[in-house]
Amino acid sequence: MTMKRNTHIFDLYWEDILVAKVFANTCTRLNLLNLSRCHSISDNELIPMLRKNHDIESLNLSQCKNLSAKCLQPVILHCNNLRILKLARCSWLTTGAIEALALHQSKLEDVDLAFCIAISESCILIFIKKFREIKTLNLEGNKQVTDKCLYTISKYSKSLKLLNLGGCCEITDKGVRALALHCPKLEGLLIRGCTKVTENSLRLMRNKVHLDRRPVDPVPVPIYVQI
């Protein structure tokens, strides 16, 4: 566990769950809260902490498996300076939570929604339309992302610099072409495993945008040995 008094940062690791309970009752000035991979923490520990810390600007709950969408309510309603939100591989994240986030928040710039399989394409569209100053967006592993999302990004996300679409296997050249033509600040595009995207659209970005289209590593084939 790391606590820096001057910057009000709290990095919590899974073995520090007892410390989390203490901090939930004592910390009221946190700006950055990193709980990534803290598998033991639950709503019971997190919600009291978030209720007392309305100045949080950066929140990382990636791979926290023992939470529910309810834990985001204090952040959605009271953390008005939230700029960074990382929720990668949070299967508990719901469409309703994303819609509420879009309704009450306004300053998000860096968002990670990788492998959030329970959210819908419609709520992603709402999210993109609301947060027009977003600079980094990770949608990796969300098969519900289609060209419609890319059209919406190309229309509203003029400040976007880095976009991760790895594993979004439904996107095509049409959507990528829209990004190439209408996202002037785009610096990096990750499209690993996007088999429907070809050089027909990517050539529009060559020498201007860093492209990563390495294939997703295949699942290893088990070797059976006869006994």
TrEMBL record:
Key words, A-Z: Ubl conjugation pathway
InterPro entries: F-box_LRR-repeat, FBXL15_LRR, Leu-rich_rpt_Cys-con_subtyp, LRR_dom_sf
GO CC annotation terms, alphabetical: cytoplasm
KW Transmembrane (keyword) present: no
F-box/LRR-repeat protein 15-like leucin rich repeat domain: residues covered: 74-203
Record has Signal as a keyword: no
Highest taxon listed in the record's lineage: Eukaryota
Name under which the protein is recorded: F-box/LRR-repeat protein 15 isoform X2
Taxonomic source organism: Papilio xuthus (Asian swallowtail butterfly)
